[in-house]
Design a protein that fits this description.
about 0% strand; 2 helices
């Protein structure tokens, strides 16, 4: 899968939801959109996990600085 930013993935997910809610697409197209949605959701969770890790690191550094100061 190409590298998308979190924001781009969420935007594409929103577009997929709109298409699926519209109900005017074929079953085959709906299945392909659902598969793409799964890929995008995995990407979003991965990006959120990375951000959470970075925030945890920052919190630890700040906590250590408070102990020193």
């Amino acid at each position: 899968m190409e590298k998308l930013s979190y924001e781009e993935a969420v935007l594409e997910l929103n577009n997929i939801v709109k298409l699926l809610e519209d109900g005017s697409i074929s079953m085959g197209k709906a299945v392909k959109l659902l598969e793409r949605g799964q890929e995008l959701i995995k990407l979003c969770y991965s990006e959120l996990d990375k951000a959470k890790g970075k925030l945890t690191e920052i919190k630890e550094v700040l906590g250590n600085l408070e102990e020193i100061g």
